[in-house]
Structure formats: structure tokens, C-alpha cells
């Protein structure tokens, strides 16, 4: 449940893409959606918003709790998954696919390589 | 993402069904000092909630307290302590009642009382309050009346939902008795004596089975075998909370507490006002006459906000109350809450208020619960 080709953060988010060829896509991990339980509401930043690494940019709320979404790197939001407004449960069903959250054009593509590898994230969730 | 890992559970008591829950991939959480299932793998709050509304679900509520009051005058003694009028019911019936503080009238606990006979009453307090309720009853009991804490001697299984009667019938257990009544019966296969009560905390037709702890696993297994054709599902306490919130049923520790009186919580129907004595009578009669300073209302979100416990309620710029229970309603697909609102604010059914949802003001309509029509009968 931790795809090898993605990068990760300690806040249980994934990042797809190298940031050089185009924007990176961001979501929450299987571990995170499982811990949250049934997701019923998602609040995402507007397209065009400038975000800083570590900044809270939205919320994912389940029947029982709410968690903030943090920007894994600095840049500009270029797309957001508006379908989640009506079907937030996609995050539970397919956290690495149709349950993606936003796409960010990183201000420094090198920041992607500094994120956790799948192996490092696996270690984090198993500890 | 933050706060996705729960703190390690230590020194918590375990249900006799703990291994069954673990085998079903349950996530556990502490409830009143007990390590109980929150939700199950392959389920989740919404699936489990929906199973109870549309078919049948089984909850292990063995963390609930059990106390027995016996001896000559036992029922009369209980009736002189707890709030509701126990003489409104006869043998074989159960009643929702309150243990109030004698000085303040605040709610020490809410309790289901099973009246077996005039000399035998069985009580189901909340897990966290059982020792305190037992302590207060013991301290007040005359020598002829014996109060015993039997917390760990029984398991309680709540079988809830429109198909619950079919499951009990398939097991050969009685299912046709009236709401809030109970029957003692033997479960043929395992040869277990169980008390089958037509009660619950979900708003659906349902039963609560009081089972000797050593037979809990046998009864649990029998329920799942008999219930398979009905689509029976194990349901965790997270779904129990969304189900009860949709009904506007109060939860002690949130909507009821020693600081919240039954008058404020609109539980006057569970108070025997005509009785000569019960704990808190003087304080509650005075509060009822003067009118409570705050009252429990329902709130229904107008937008996408989900109210949560302890959030502040505003009318304009003025803080007028606090959310005591709040969640996403799986049935209504919207945020719902119970909230204590100041009487002085002059709010009522149809008023619009705002709840501070983590810094954003979310519009909510004031309503009278339930949020979903009950079908308990």
C-alpha cells in the first residue's frame, strides 16, 4: 500500500512526479485514509494560490476527526480535484488514484528529491 | 496530515469478546476505561451505520456497567434515589432514568433500570460512572437492600436494525415483546440464559442481550451464524455514536454531566416530578419553576460545516452556547449537533446561528431532534 514510485512526507502525504517535467500531484496515503476513517468533507486551496512548504493548505474531515493538509513543498497550486466535493469517499477508495487532492508547480523542483522515499516512509509507518 | 496515530492503550479493561473483535480487524479506542471496538476492517462508520438503519448490526457494549439491587424494598429504594418514576412500569419492563446529584440536580449518570420484581432491580449505568453510581446507592441503601457491582460478570450485545427480530427468531430467542420490556430466555445451542431487552441507542427496532461473560463468545458466534442471511454486520462504537446523535439521544460526559441538569437537557420526561423524593428533587423543582438558563437544542448545518463537541455557537457576534455533540450524519449527509444554548438569547426552532468551525463561521439551523425519524417500536 506504499507505491514505490512516489515520494512521501512525515505528514502521510504522497507526491507524484519529479517537478521538472510538470507539476507534482499530491494526495494522502493509504495509511492516512485508513487512520481517518470514512472521509466526508475536503477543503482544498484555490487554483493559483501560492503555498509554502509545511503550510496548512486545506482539511480532510472524516466522520470522527479532521486533519490538516500541508503543502509538501513550496510553489503554486495549478489544479485541484473538485470531484472530491461531491465524492470525498474517493480518498478512501483510491487514495493514490482518483482520490488525489491538488497539483502544485514547485518553485524549486529539487525539493521533490528531498522528500521521503517509499522505503523511508514504510519505515516511518511501521515504527 | 496530523494526529493519525492513537495513543497506546494501557491499563484498559477488555471485553470478553476482545479476540473476536481483533480477528475482525477492529480499531480499538478507550471508552470509559475499556478498550472497545471503534470500527471494523471492511466496514467503517458509514457502512456500519447504514447496516443498522437498513438491515441489522451487532454492537459489543460490554463496557456498560451492570449493578444489581436486591432485597425487601429494593425497587422502592431505587425509586427514592433515581429520577424517573419506577412505579410507572411493572416487572419485566425497563426504564430510562437519571442518577442526579442530590445537592445540585446535575446528572451523575443516565441509567437503564430493569425492574424484575419489587425486590430485584438491575441497572445499566455508563462504563465510566458505574463505580460512582454504585457508591452512591450503597451509601444510601437501608440494611435490607444489597447493591452489588457486577460490571465484569456480564457482556451486553446490542442487536439493532429492522432485521434484528428475524435474527433473534432464527436463534429461537423471543423477539415479539414490547418496546422497553425484557424477557429471560435460554439460547438452545450453547445452553445459555440471556436477558433479551427491547432497548437500544440507535433509534431502530432492536434488542440488548445481557449475557453471562463466560458465554459471550458463544452468543456472539450464534448471532453471526443466524444473522448471515439478514446481512448482519459487526458495528463499532463510532457508528453507535452517529446513530444516537441522529436520534438526539444524549451521551453522558458530553450532553449530560454533573454540570448539566435534566431540565437543561430536556429530560423532564425522565423525572418523576410527582414523587415525594429522589436525588436532586429540590434543586430540579426550583430550576423547572424558574426556567433553565440554557437548554439542549439540535443544530443542522446549512452549509458543509461539521460541528464538533466544544465548538462555540454564535448569534451574530454574541456567543450563545456550546456544541455538546456534533458529527456528520450518514443518513442526512450533513453536519448535525446537539448544543446547549443560552435561554437569554431567545433562540428557538427555526432560528439561524453560526458555529465556529476552526475559525470559519458555519451557518446552522436550530431544530428539535430527532434528525432522523425513529423506528424503535
From TrEMBL, chain A:
Alphabetical list of Pfam families matching this protein: GCV_H (PF01597)
Gene3D superfamilies per the UniProt record, alphabetical: 2.40.50.100
InterPro entries, alphabetized: 2-oxoA_DH_lipoyl-BS, Biotin_lipoyl, GCV_H, GCV_H/Fam206, GCV_H_sub, Single_hybrid_motif
Residues in Lipoyl-binding domain copies: 23-105
Entry keywords, A to Z: Lipoyl
GO biological process: glycine decarboxylation via glycine cleavage system; protein lipoylation
Cofactor binding comment, as recorded: Binds 1 lipoyl cofactor covalently.
UniProt-listed CDD domains: GCS_H
Modified-residue entries (N6-lipoyllysine), positions: 64
Cofactor(s) this protein requires: (R)-lipoate
SUPFAM superfamilies, A to Z: Single hybrid motif
Recorded GO CC terms: cytosol; glycine cleavage complex
Quaternary structure and partners: The glycine cleavage system is composed of four proteins: P, T, L and H.
Function description: The glycine cleavage system catalyzes the degradation of glycine. The H protein shuttles the methylamine group of glycine from the P protein to the T protein.
Family in the record: Belongs to the GcvH family.
Protein's name according to its UniProt entry: Glycine cleavage system H protein
Name of the gene: gcvH
UniProtKB/TrEMBL annotation, chain B:
GO cellular component, one term: glycine cleavage complex
InterPro entries hit by this protein: GcvT (IPR006223), GcvT/YgfZ/DmdA (IPR028896), GcvT/YgfZ_C (IPR029043), GcvT_bac (IPR022903), GcvT_C (IPR013977), GCVT_N (IPR006222), TrmE/GcvT-like (IPR027266)
Entries under Gene3D superfamilies matching the protein: Probable tRNA modification gtpase trme, domain 1
Occurrences of domain GCVT N-terminal (ranges): 17-275
Root EC class: transferase
Pfam families: GCV_T, GCV_T_C
List of residues binding substrate: 208
Keyword Methyltransferase applies: yes
Keyword Repressor recorded: no
Segments forming domain Aminomethyltransferase C-terminal: 294-372
Keyword annotations: Aminotransferase, Methyltransferase, Transferase
Single annotated GO MF: methyltransferase activity
GO terms under biological process: glycine decarboxylation via glycine cleavage system; methylation
E.C. code: 2.1.2.10
Catalytic activity: N(6)-[(R)-S(8)-aminomethyldihydrolipoyl]-L-lysyl-[protein] + (6S)-5,6,7,8-tetrahydrofolate = N(6)-[(R)-dihydrolipoyl]-L-lysyl-[protein] + (6R)-5,10-methylene-5,6,7,8-tetrahydrofolate + NH4(+)
Family statement: Belongs to the GcvT family.
Entry-linked PANTHER family: AMINOMETHYLTRANSFERASE, AMINOMETHYLTRANSFERASE, MITOCHONDRIAL
Quaternary data: The glycine cleavage system is composed of four proteins: P, T, L and H.
NCBIfam families: gcvT, PRK00389.1
Role of this protein: The glycine cleavage system catalyzes the degradation of glycine.
Protein name: Aminomethyltransferase
Species of the source: Micromonospora pattaloongensis
Gene from which this protein is expressed: gcvT
Amino acid at each position: 500500500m506504499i507505491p514505490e514510485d512516489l515520494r512521501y512526507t512525515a505528514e502521510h502525504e504522497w507526491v507524484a512526479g519529479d517537478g521538472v517535467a510538470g507539476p507534482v500531484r499530491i494526495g494522502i496515503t493509504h495509511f492516512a485514509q485508513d487512520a481517518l476513517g470514512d472521509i466526508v468533507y475536503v477543503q482544498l486551496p484555490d487554483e493559483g494560490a501560492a503555498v509554502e512548504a509545511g503550510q496548512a493548505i486545506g482539511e480532510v474531515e472524516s466522520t470522527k476527526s479532521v486533519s490538516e493538509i500541508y503543502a509538501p513543498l513550496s510553489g503554486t497550486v495549478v489544479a485541484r480535484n473538485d470531484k472530491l466535493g461531491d465524492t470525498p469517499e474517493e480518498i478512501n477508495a483510491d487514495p493514490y488514484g482518483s482520490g488525489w487532492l491538488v497539483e502544485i508547480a514547485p518553485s524549486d523542483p529539487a525539493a521533490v528529491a528531498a522528500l521521503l522515499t517509499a522505503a523511508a516512509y514504510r519505515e516511518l509507518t511501521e515504527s | 496530515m496530523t494526529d493519525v496515530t492513537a495513543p497506546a492503550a494501557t491499563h484498559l479493561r477488555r471485553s470478553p469478546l476482545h479476540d473476536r473483535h481483533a480477528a475482525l480487524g477492529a480499531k480499538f479506542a478507550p471508552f470509559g476505561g475499556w478498550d472497545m471496538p471503534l470500527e471494523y476492517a471492511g466496514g467503517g462508520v458509514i457502512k456500519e451505520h447504514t447496516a443498522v438503519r437498513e438491515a441489522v448490526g451487532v454492537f459489543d457494549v460490554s463496557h456498560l456497567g451492570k449493578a444489581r439491587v436486591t432485597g425487601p424494598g429494593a425497587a422502592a429504594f431505587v425509586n427514592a434515589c433515581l429520577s424517573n418514576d419506577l412505579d410507572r412500569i411493572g416487572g419485566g419492563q425497563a426504564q430510562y432514568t437519571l442518577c442526579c446529584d442530590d445537592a445540585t440536580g446535575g446528572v451523575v449518570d443516565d441509567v437503564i433500570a430493569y425492574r424484575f420484581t419489587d425486590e430485584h432491580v438491575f441497572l445499566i449505568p455508563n462504563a465510566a460512572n458505574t463505580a460512582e453510581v454504585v457508591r452512591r446507592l450503597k451509601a444510601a441503601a437501608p440494611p435490607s437492600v444489597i447493591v452489588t457491582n457486577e460490571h465484569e460478570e456480564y457482556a451486553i450485545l446490542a442487536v439493532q436494525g429492522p432485521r434484528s427480530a428475524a435474527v433473534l427468531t432464527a436463534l429461537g430467542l423471543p423477539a415479539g415483546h414490547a418496546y422497553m420490556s425484557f424477557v429471560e430466555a435460554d439460547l438452545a445451542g450453547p445452553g445459555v440464559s440471556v436477558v433479551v431487552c427491547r432497548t437500544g441507542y440507535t433509534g431502530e427496532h432492536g434488542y440488548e442481550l445481557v449475557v453471562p461473560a463466560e458465554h459471550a463468545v458463544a452468543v456472539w458466534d450464534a448471532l453471526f451464524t443466524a444473522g448471515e442471511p439478514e446481512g448482519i454486520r459487526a458495528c463499532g462504537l463510532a457508528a453507535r455514536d452517529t446513530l444516537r446523535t441522529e436520534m438526539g439521544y444524549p451521551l453522558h460526559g458530553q450532553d449530560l454531566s454533573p454540570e448539566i441538569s435534566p431540565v437543561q437537557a430536556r429530560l423532564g420526561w425522565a423525572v418523576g416530578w410527582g414523587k415525594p423524593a429522589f436525588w436532586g428533587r429540590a434543586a430540579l423543582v426550583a430550576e423547572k419553576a424558574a426556567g433553565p438558563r440554557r437548554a439542549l437544542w439540535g443544530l443542522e448545518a446549512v452549509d458543509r460545516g461539521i460541528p464538533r463537541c466544544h465548538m462555540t455557537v454564535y448569534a451574530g457576534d454574541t456567543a450563545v452556547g456550546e456544541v455538546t455533540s456534533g458529527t456528520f450524519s450518514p443518513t442526512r449527509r450533513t453536519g448535525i449537533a446537539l448544543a446547549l444554548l443560552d435561554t437569554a438569547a431567545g433562540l428557538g426552532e427555526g432560528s439561524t446561528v453560526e458555529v465556529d468551525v476552526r475559525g470559519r463561521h458555519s451557518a446552522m439551523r436550530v431544530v428539535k431532534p430527532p434528525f432522523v425519524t425513529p423506528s424503535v417500536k
